[in-house]
């Protein structure tokens, strides 16, 4: 294995499919030179929730992961308060799930890990334990700010050759026109351009922007937000030297020929970005957090409690998330 710092996987919701897909991901990467990772979690529980009979081995520090990775899934043992049955949430585990995210961030800041890959969490279980964040992305940003970093987090979804950014995320559709501002669009575009260069080796990223309204508003006849909010933002970004195009009518922005014209596309609301991502690669989509002082990726799916423990979970999204995290980490080291 390489002496490159390993990737850390957080446990996510223990009762979900994370134990199964983590083991299957280890099987994919165990004989490869890149992608060494370890799990921060309960080694005993992972050994029980193991339909594929993946070997599990405890480690005492991240540096030991590469020594055992080819033979077993390395686990930095952090015991759970309870061992829930597959598919059955136990709210008593929520504090450990949150603590694992905290520790992963600490290890990233210490340089002990090269990237963080987060397994999916069950938000209602965390909320019951006092968690007050929308999800992983804004909580990770909160932890970075607490360490003094000026952070502007951006969610990017990746599916094959498509990189899509929802400018507004988890808000009702009716609130999007009021929430959307030129400043929001410009801030996210700057972060995307910087991190595409930093982590993806794209010297001058080409950024496309969808319109908010049908046909990008048709010069104000189908809504004024495109003309009054998006167009001025693009003008300022172009003046700053960014390569921008749009606003594009969303119904023609995602086919193969259109995707060849940009490196990333900023979409005005959640489903405008997520529908093409999931259509293009439902099982292999990746969630990437840009704008953070560390690398974080995640599978683009939930905990799948309904199939947990059945041995039918598809690990492709987690595999893709680990692979991309390794590539991003490698890019920072030349």
What do these coordinates show?
The chain has 334 residues and is α/β, with parallel strands linked by helices. It has two domains: 1-152 and 295-334, Isopropylmalate Dehydrogenase (3-Layer(aba) Sandwich); 161-280, Isopropylmalate Dehydrogenase (3-Layer(aba) Sandwich), CATH 3.40.718.10. Helices cover 37% and strands 17% of the residues. It has helices at 18-29, 43-48, 65-68, 94-109, 123-128, 136-146, 176-179, 182-200, 225-239, 256-259, 270-280, 316-331, and strands spanning 7-10, 37-41, 56-59, 73-77, 115-118, 154-159, 162-166, 206-210, 243-248, 264-267, 286-290, 296-299. Strands 3-4-2-1-5-12-11-6-7-10-8-9 form a twelve-stranded mixed beta sheet, with helices on both faces. A hairpin with a 2-residue loop joins strand 6 and strand 7 (162-166). Helix 1 (18-29) crosses helix 12 and helix 8 packs across helix 9. It starts with 6 loop residues before the first strand and ends with a helix.
What is the level-2 CATH architecture name of the largest domain?
A: 3-Layer(aba) Sandwich
Query: Percentage of helical residues?
Result: 25-40%
Q: What proportion of the residues form beta strands (DSSP E)?
A: 15-25%
Q: Which homologous superfamily in CATH is the superfamily of the largest domain?
A: Isopropylmalate Dehydrogenase
* Strand line-up in the sheet with most strands: 3-4-2-1-5-12-11-6-7-10-8-9
Rounded mean pLDDT score: 95
Q: How many DSSP helices?
A: 12
Question: What structural category characterises the helix and strand content?
Answer: alpha/beta
Shape: globular
Intertermini distance:
18 Å
The radius of gyration over CA amounts to 20 Å
Order of helices and strands: EHEHEHEHEHHEEHHEHEHEHEEH
Q: What is the strand tally?
A: 12
